[in-house]
Amino acid sequence: MIISMLLLILMFNLTGNLFSGSGVKDEPIDKLVPTDAMLTSIVTHAYTLERVGRGWRFLRALKDGNNDDLADNDDGGERTANKNTETSDNEIDNQELTDNVFAWQEALLEPIGEATLAGATQVNVWLAGESAPRHYLFFQVGADMLVQYPAQGAQLYKVTNKTWSELFFEESF
Predict the structure, then answer these.
(1) Which terminus of the chain has fewer Cβ atoms in its 10 Å neighbourhood, N or C?
(2) Residue 109 CB contacts under 8 Å (≥ 6 apart), including other chains
(3) In terms of Cα–Cα distance, which of 73, 15, 63, 9 is closest to 43?
(4) pLDDT score at 63
(5) Closest CA to 45 of 123, 101, 118
(6) Nearest by Cα to 124 from 71, 54, 63
(7) Which sign, positive or negative, has the C-alpha torsion 74, 76, 80, 83?
(8) Domain spans of the chain?
């Protein structure tokens, strides 16, 4: 009886993933974050922005600039403040954090070709319902902001409606 229930649960999980189409696709993307996705955290080398209830918490990386949350997490995806981050609730108010998250959700992308660039700012974006983060590489080239989603190979996108300062907090807090 127990084995049959486990098999039934496994079958529901597998068929749900087949029909939802939640896998990574090779077609070009037009938004940085899918329209129907809920952001749970944004992790950069300098800080982590994570959802806490209805608000957001800003966690700054410690002085060494090392944020272990950028590394793949093999412990089931649990993302909490670690020894390399410190909470800084008083530095940025919740409205500014919310505006930043909206900027990520509204960022539009335009494919511009394939290339390999150096000097990327790595960002992991965690979305509700996904077991692993989406890895993005951001490049600032002159006035343009380019992004690469490595799951789609070397395809580069230009962020057309947001600036670097709208998506990233200044690192000199």
Answers:
(1) N
(2) 29, 30, 31, 32, 147, 157, 158, 159, 160
(3) 73
(4) 61
(5) 123
(6) 71
(7) negative
(8) 30-167
The pTM assigned to this predicted structure is: 0.69
Which residues, at least 6 apart from 31, have a Cβ–Cβ distance to it below 8 Å? 105, 106, 107, 108, 109
Predicted confidence at residue 171, as pLDDT, reads 57
pLDDT at 102: 93
pLDDT along the chain (173 residues), means of 10: 85 66 58 90 92 91 59 46 48 87 93 84 92 92 88 86 87 48
- Let me know: does 132 contact 74? Beta carbons within 8 Å: no
In angstroms, the Cα distances linking 156 to 121, 138, 161 are: 14, 10, 16
Q: What is the DSSP letter of 136?
A: E
